Amino acid sequence: MRTVQIANHKIGRGQSVFIIAEIGYNFNRLEEAKASIDAAMACGVNAVKFQTFRAETLTSRYTDFPDEAGGTNQFDEFKRYELSEESHRVLFEYATQKGMVVFSTPAYYDDVELLERVGIPAYKIGSDDLTNLPFIEYIAAKRRPIIFSTGMADLSEVDEAYRTICGTGNDQIVILQCVSNYPIRDFRMVNLRVIESYRRAFDVPIGFSDHTVGYSCAVAAVSLGASVIEKHFTIDKGLDAPDAFFSADPKEMKALVQAVREVEDALGTPVKMPTPSEVKMRSETRKSVLARRKIQAGEILKPDMIIVKRPGTGIPPKLQHFIFGRHVKHNIEADRPITLEMLE
Predict the structure, then answer these.
(1) What is the pTM (predicted TM-score) of this model?
(2) What class has domain 276-342?
(3) What is the pLDDT of residue 19?
């Protein structure tokens, strides 16, 4: 698997999981957005992400959201949450000064150019643009790392998007398993095993864009090999913002980050061998050959003179048949481990 570099973070096998707090447009004022950056940083995430769009170039005026997403008019909602270029500069500079990686999802060509002017280390492509291959090609040609979500897609569409990016010479790609429901109420729809399919099909880091409530799926994704976790984030689930109610709040995001870090530590290495912490336990709790009774110097060892029990500092049980018939050099007290040095 090739690695992907975003700012000072390497993403891929053997690297720490890259956790993104998707702030999106979960705020009504810039001060709320800044507070979201601060809260996300306090939770220990690696990056924050926004969404860059203008209603006029994103959606028809006559299209509503599905009922699960509120059923409101899409144009009216997006118009309300547009961010100016100046607002982008303020938020990006604020996050950068705090040492936080910050990037965004553009919805149109003009948005890409805005983000180029502001300065961005990577792009996120949303599931809605997965089949918008000319747009994907346009972004890929900027030669910045690309993370793309795959909600609503089949594998052939994911492959087309991947090949389109690669066709520009850009190989800095991360693919996220994603299900485009907000939130996902039926966990049977999450299909985390797609992560394994992606890992077999594509030689790039794979991740998970989590639209569930809670963080169990994010933890499971890491155990399946996810290198990136993206989670919607809000400073307050009660905010008057479309995604706030199902987003992770600071308490939940902090718990998610901690759980992910614990799991990636626990995954460790595929090589099975005693761990350093087991060395003392190995000698004290494994079993070996001990004297069943006091054995006098010069006696010949017989099966009824030994017993196999803890500790493991004597002759291993699997070798006990080699010691029968041998003379004992000196007295061995009952319950003492028998070693080869005690025998002739």
Answers:
(1) 0.91
(2) alpha beta
(3) 98
